[in-house]
Amino acid sequence: MHAPLSSVSRLSFSGDGTVEGYASLFGEIDQARDMVMPGAFAQTLKVRGLRKVPMLFQHDPSEPVGIWLELREDFRGLWARGRLIPDVMRARELLALVEAGAVDGLSIGYRTVRGQIEPRTRVRKLYQVDLWEISIVTFPLLAGARVRAVKQAALPPRSLVRTQAEREWRSMTEAADEPAPRLRPRPAVVSASLRSREGRRSALGTVSHRYSMLR
Q1: pTM more than 0.90
Q2: Which of 93, 45, 96 lies closest to 65 in space, CA to CA?
Q3: 29, 38, 194, 206: which is deepest, by most CB within 10 A?
Q4: DSSP readout, 10-29?
Q5: Parallel, antiparallel, or unpaired for β 12-13 and 60-73?
Q6: CB 130 within 8 A of CB 41
Q7: Does a structural domain hold residue 198?
Q8: For residues 191 and 202, what is the distance between their CA atoms, to the nearest angstrom?
Q9: What residues does the Prohead serine protease domain cover (predicted)?
Q10: How many domains is the chain built from?
């Protein structure tokens, strides 16, 4: 399940592409009416470790954008600090989007291990979850799960091979967009029987007539 959060803390970027913020807040009810309880991440963090919790964009497993450097529980929730990888195009886009304030949400993807629904409020309290991933998202379910700070990462120099390949690709696509050149109509084929003397004379006369016209 995916659970974005509430708006007390903002996702932040730093100079080396570092991002940090709360991925989950304890005691907060999200839009799915789930409430994560203190200690819910203790076991999964111990078992999985940092490298097995990917940093994704919009919960898309085909869009990894960085790595998490620190994940820990405190009195408030699950604190996350990671680094966007500037070699990844989507990560460079996220740097610009977060700095502009266009994207600043954090959301967790998880499986409920132990939870209980309160009959009166219909709120599901999550006492233990298996954390799958943490994503930077546009719309967090929990308003306080936000990126707090980001440092601008230096972009790697573009390789000459890549630059040349992109230039050739652009020239190919531009050539494909150009209209095809108009061809001059081919002269009509003279159909005459060459078996008889009269047919050969007629064919030679037609060809010489067309030749004189072309001159």
Answers
A1: no
A2: 93
A3: 29
A4: -BEE-TTSEEEEEEEEBT-B
A5: unpaired
A6: no
A7: no
A8: 10
A9: 18-152
A10: 1
Distance CA 132, CA 99 (A): 27
For the record, the structure tokens of 159 come out as 């390789």
pLDDT interval class at 38 (50, 70, 90): very high
Cβ–Cβ < 8 Å for 135, 56: yes
SS3 69: strand
Whether 121 is in a domain gets the answer yes
Cα distance between residue 115 and residue 137, in whole Å? 25
DSSP-derived secondary structure for 91-122: HHHHHHHHHHTS--EEEEEEEEEEEEE-TTT-
Paired sense of beta strands 34-36 and 147-150, if any: unpaired
User: Which tens digits make up the pLDDT trace of 114-160?
Assistant: 999 999 999 999 999 999 999 999 887 766 666 654 444 333 444 45
The closest of 145, 30, 24 to 78, measured between CA atoms, is 24
Q: Which of 34, 178, 194, 3 is nearest to 107 (CA)?
A: 3
Neighbours of 134 (CB within 10 A): 25
Nearest alpha carbon to residue 19 among 109, 138, 135: 135
Pick from 57-66, 139-148, 170-179: least confident? 170-179
Residue 31 included in any domain = yes
> What residues make up the domain containing 56?
2-149
Report d(CA 210, CA 93) in Å as an integer. Answer: 65
